[in-house]
Amino acid sequence: MVRARKRFGQHFLEPAWVTKVIRAIDPVGSDAFVEIGPGRGALTRPLAAQAGRVTAVEIDRDLASDLRAAALPNVSIVEGDFLELARSALPSDARLRVAGNLPYNVAAPILFTLVDWFGGSGTLTDATLMLQREVADRLVAAPGTREYGVLTVLIGHSAQVKRLLALPPGAFRPPPKVHSALVQLRFHAPDPPVRDLSVFRGLVQAVFTRRRKTLANALLAFRESSPQPALERAGIDGKRRPETLTIAEFARLSDEMEP
């Protein structure tokens, strides 16, 4: 049996928890899944038994080889780093679902990649993912809270996020030093729509580098010119702090920024 490798952040789901996670995912025969980080196949096998097709993306060559040797009839193995794959390496089904146990150190980049590849296109319907509890907290955070930030706004702009399960360290082998959570993202077109998505994302990322400053000061991290005219056009008080703005307010403000 292939041992967990620390450099890949591997923690394998225990059998007692597999049933709970599969029940939460609720696969059906017409589903086509992309599984990120299948590991030893704990989720892959029950997914394959209930879904129509599974494409499993595994970075560890030994684990990929073992899964390939299992020869599950409706499972395809893609060996490589999900973050480095071209979109063309994944299935071209009109509607896809994603499942996975994400390594804690790359969870946020994978979430952003999913939004970039699929968000709003209708290709991806949802992603059910195991994440570090603190990442899940950030995904579902409300404005004005400590957890509310870049991840909340940029993912929430293109997906509805729901926490499904809490997973203790003992749900995995080897047990991690942190608690985990199972969350589901249901993707939708950017809401509200923005005039320039790159401006919206750049603005959000910039102001949260100065989250304890007033919004008027924090915006100078995005544009050196005075932000006051844009704030006035957007109807937003520049004395507020960045973490108090809703996604809709960030969208309105980004649309008022000069190109």
Can you summarize this structure?
The protein is of the alpha/beta class and 259 residues long. The chain is built from ten helices and nine strands. It has helices at 15-25, 44-50, 61-70, 107-118, 133-139, 150-156, 197-207, 215-218, 228-234, 247-256; strands at residues 12-13, 32-36, 53-58, 75-79, 96-101, 124-132, 159-167, 172-173, 180-187.
Q: What report would you give on this structure?
A:
The chain has 259 residues and is α/β, with parallel strands linked by helices. It has two domains: 182 residues, Vaccinia Virus protein VP39 (Rossmann fold), CATH 3.40.50; 60 residues, rRNA adenine dimethylase, C-terminal domain (Helicase, Ruva Protein, domain 3, Orthogonal Bundle), CATH 1.10.8. Helices cover 33% and strands 20% of the residues. It is built from ten helices and nine strands. The protein has a seven-stranded mixed beta sheet with strand order 4-3-2-5-6-9-7, sandwiched between helices. The chain has a two-stranded antiparallel ribbon with strand order 1-8. Strand 5, helix 4 and strand 6 form a beta-alpha-beta unit. Helix 7 crosses helix 10 and helix 9 packs across helix 10. The longest helix has 12 residues. The chain is elongated and about 60 Å long. The N and C termini lie far apart (56 Å). The N terminus is likely disordered.
